[in-house]
Amino acid sequence: MGAAYYRESFFVALNGLYKDWLGNPQVWDLSTDPCEDQWLGIKCDDSQTRVTQILLMNQGLAGTLSTSLGNLTSLTDMDITSNPMLGGPLPAEIRNLIHLERFFVQFCNFSGTIPSEIGNMVSLKYLGLSQNNFTGPLPATVGLLKNLNWLDVSNNNLSGPLPVSSTSGIGSGLDNLTNAQHWHLQNNEFSGPIPPSLFVQGMQLLHLMLRNNKFTGSIPPTIENLVHLQILCLDDNALSGTVPSAISSLSNLSTLEVNNNNLNGQLPDLSSNMYLQMLIAGHNPFDTAEIPSWIINMRNIYLLSLDAANLTGSIPAEIFGFSSFLSNVSLGSNYLNGTLNLTEANPSSLLFVNLSDNDIIALEKGNYTQKLLMNGNPYCEMDSSACNPTQVGTLEAPAMGTECTNDCDPEYAINKKDSSSCQCAYPVVSTCNFPASRYPTLSNFVSEMEHIIAAGLNGSQYLEGILIQDTQVVVDVSSANEIRISVFPPSNMTAWPSRNVTVISYAIKNRDIDFDPIGAVLCEYTGTYWKLQVVTRLSRGAIVGLVIGAVVLAIVIFVLVLYAMRIKKRALKAEKLNKPFAAWIGTGQGLSVHVPHLKGARWFSLGEIRSCTNNFSQSNEIGEGGYGKVYKGFLSSGERVAIKRAHAHLLQGTAEFKTEIELLSRVHHINLVGLLGFCFEEREQILVYEYMPNGTLTDCLSGRTGLRMDWSRRIEILLGSARGIAYLHTEANPPIIHGDIKSCNILLDEKLVAKVADFGLSELLLDGRLSVETAQVKGTLGYLDPDYYMTNQLTSKSDVYSFGVVLFEVITGRLPIEGGKCVARQVAKLHGATGIDGVVQEWVDPHLDEYPRKGLGWLLEIALNCMKDDPQERLSMAEVVKELEVLSGPPSEMAKSLSINMYKNRSERDDQALIQEKYGSSSFEYSGSYIGISTPLEPK
């Protein structure tokens, strides 16, 4: 078959995926070639005729996995991890993917059984199906995957016994996977005994993770066949009998977890396991005995946990100092007695000791100053300082990273790798679990991660010129056996391009990193990569709500049809009134079931909208934002309008759509964009506004509109905007908080009158409180009020803060964030150090040729008072209007009023004394106020 056949085949397949993913990813253009145009997440072979990779982690995919996937028979890699709105069953057509080597669909919403056709994917090396809703048994056909190295089906609802070839009926089972190194079957509902035939000679298993299932019976002695095993996790089951002595022969074992079972007898002597670092065996009904003497021979132990293990007798002092790596010792809820002697403990390495709920009567702490839990012992009756019952017995880990003093916006992460950079940016985040490692070797791990990332990215077609050697990997300790890895972009960038996010996460997620002396490390891509617009994603509950809403809508329509047959005129009227609103009934959590309350806005049919936009032609496009595209159009009356059409996949925009219709239809002010109508038909969400021919304030400041933005024009635009916001805060009934004030939401009409737009994130204030409590911070990075970000409390002062950012934009002509730094804060720091001179020299917009120097200083003070850290100290929007009104007045009036109102306690100060204090005179004349004309009057 020729190249044309393969190109047509994969194009049809990708088109099927795109359709079933509800139009995601947005950047896929079905009119172009996926290989030549390098579609996001798509990689082709050298001939550009076959798709070999689909890498779309955390891309907001929704819907199901199309059966057309089976047509991509040349696929070698597929990773669609972290798309929680993507679900449904895995299609049986995966049987055609015989060349697929890596298949990851983790952290999604897939359900149903794992199809037995998975056994046809004979090239699979990595299979990751964790964090979904799969049910039923693990198919025995998995045993046909002879090349499989990594099997991860953890965190699902799989049940039944583990399949083995002797009982499966097809002669295949997990025991056939002799080359596999990782079995991650934890956190399911597997039941029955662990089959002795599961473990055969020659197996290469390194990780056997069976924790948190419903296994019964004994631990099979055939486990001794797993001679390479490093991690054995059997905890949180219902296993009984003794721990087999065969485990002592596993010389490479670094982690043993058998806690929370019904094991009895005694632990076998494990001192020959030279690499054992974590022993967790508590909460078992072992036979009563003293602390095993062989423990002090385990020189590499890092964590020892034998809580509720029926231990009795005294505690040998050397148990706290026999290993230089010992970090955590937990022996709570036993019958240990006598004196607790910590004199041999090393306080620099031993971070946590738990002896709660024992029979200890005395304590010798020596130099030990770290965390000690002693509650529930007789000793507490004599000294309660170590016996706080409210303390939680969590394991401890040392802190890492350099303290940074950078003044980053709270939305950014801080690169703490070294104090000289402390970069403000958006990293790609992964979580790595150290089941059997010790923290002093983390520097080696960071070096290894840097190597892996570079190897995964160098030469990639997705790099877009990024210099990988300039990336930074930052490690943060999350818990005693988990760290978070943040991969920061190069220092000259704020964020990674979306293409690079997928490649970086693919390079580090679910890879087994195994090197001396760390041992095994498990990494998963768990971070959510920040977008420029922070919005609430649609929850699973909301998805259910949408389904219910669709059913309700169908019933309502059926009833309306019946009703129309009886009373046709009334039915037609009811349909006209209610058709636009029916889909709001039951659209998800937290949304009102009532229809919008409208004043003056009309409903447009989709046919009318298509007609006036020439069927949404590209020539009619005038803008695009995170919500959707904006088109110009002409109504049948000849009136020119702006039409905002939501992206088809933005179902989570329903609440914002409803909010904007209600708010804009009930507020009327010269400085607010007027809503003419809307369309809500055939899943379209469209708003019809008055047309604003001069674009946004952002466009004007950038020079894209060609308008000359002189001083007076800037002040008039700011004043108009402030009046519109102040109207929302004080004159609208009830008051409204806009929630997303920014320069691109300030539009200019044909007379350059500023009008505030986009009420999608606005909230009503009822009796001084928000009508709906915000569950998640929403807004735009760079403009977000830090107090709102920290407290989730949206107030009118949040709008004031955002408007202060806009003031700095007008002063500097720059966007709020440059190079990961907040422009406003940099200007404020320079102003505090040098006064207005430094600001004029370094930050004033070079396109602003002439301006009153004192007026600039006044505008800067207004901005600073809008952005106070404490919301109570910020100006109100009404006060901002008054200040700007003075600035917009005649120069002489401005000079007379200069700075009087800029003091928070101005009502307590004498105005003339204030002028005297700041300018050395109780009155002065305004002369030569424009830069480049003559010397302005300066404070003394």
From TrEMBL:
The chain crosses the membrane at residues 541-563. ATP binds at residue 644. Keywords: ATP-binding, Glycoprotein, Kinase, Leucine-rich repeat, Membrane, Nucleotide-binding, Repeat, Serine/threonine-protein kinase, Signal, Transferase, Transmembrane, Transmembrane helix. The keyword Metal-binding does not apply. Residues 616-887 form the Protein kinase domain. GO terms for cellular component: membrane. Pfam families: LRR_1, PK_Tyr_Ser-Thr. Its main location: membrane. GO terms for molecular function: ATP binding; protein serine/threonine kinase activity. PANTHER family: LEUCINE-RICH REPEAT RECEPTOR PROTEIN KINASE HPCA1, RECEPTOR-LIKE PROTEIN 55. This is Protein kinase domain-containing protein. The lineage of its organism: Eukaryota, Viridiplantae, Streptophyta, Embryophyta, Tracheophyta.
